[in-house]
Amino acid sequence: MTVNPISAGRIQSAIALASSKTGVDFDYLLGQAKIESGLNANARAGTSSASGLYQFVEQSWLAVVKKHGAEHGLGWAANSIGQTAGGRYTVGDSATRSAILNLRNDPTAASLMAAEHASDNKDVLEGSLGRSANGTDLYMAHFLGIGGARKFLSAMQTNPGAAAASLFPQAAGANRSIFYGSNGQPRSLSAIYDRFATKLGTAADSVSETRNANLAFAAQALALGDDSTVVTGGNQSAEDALAWATQAMNRFGNKAAAGADSLLRPSPNNARLAYMMLASMGGR
């Protein structure tokens, strides 16, 4: 059975909507999706149960839907998920379980749950680290789970040169290219962390290019006098979009490539801009 690809416009619009609803930075969410799946909503891992835009494994997905699904119109899914005494998430009916897991391949559901998951992880990590959590910290929490991220970051602070595979053998087995170099040598904790930071920074550069293209589109629409090109729930016009675009570009555009720290600075204007710009391109 061939699965039809989902357009990049629809995916980016879904991410922008999740950003506007949760306050989690659009740049970070888009960058994470680029790294995880290459913006392929139907992506599936070959070595684990990970699937979808954000490559949620089954248990992580069930956990976040149980906690946040009802907030986003997925009450039927949240109510169907139970938890055993040992903490494992279960769904009694197999058809319902499949339906819930298949939501990982829906861009809107996946983006909303990824945003909520990032927000939850940010709060926990900051309480543990005693500092602000940056984009790389959050990505570690997505990659290893919150417990694994806390263990990784704590160990890296104490002994950054330690081989990560010895501390995370299961993760290393499922993600050999991350934990080992091409020569077969195990990578250190700091080396893996730095690689993820670089990937997020590269994704941020791409996000900045997308923002520039969307700004140009809004400017073109304004020049043509088409005030109806951008219409959101607040009835903003193309002129409104250009004003917000200029403000956001000045504030965020030159910071996106500065490092992972800049990827998680929620801004309502930035989220609003992203949604408006993508809507103007017909991605909704």
Question: How is the topology of this model organized?
Answer:
Blueprint: H1 8-22, H2 26-37, H3 58-68, H4 75-80, E1 81-83, E2 89-91, H5 94-102, H6 107-129, H7 135-158, H8 164-167, H9 169-174, H10 176-179, H11 189-223, H12 238-253, H13 268-280
Antiparallel strand pairs: 1-2
DSSP strand content = under 5%
Give the CA-based shape: globular
Describe the strand arrangement of the main beta sheet, using strand numbers: 1-2
| Record field, number of beta strands | 2
Q: Output the radius of gyration.
A: 20 Å
**Mean pLDDT over the residues:** 79
Helix content: 55-70%
Largest sheet: 2 strands, antiparallel
Alpha plus pi helix count = 13
Q: Write down the secondary-structure element order.
A: HHHHEEHHHHHHHHH
End-to-end separation: 26 Å
Structural class: mainly alpha
Labels describing this entry:
single chain, 284 residues, mainly alpha, two-stranded antiparallel ribbon, 63% helix, globular, disordered C terminus
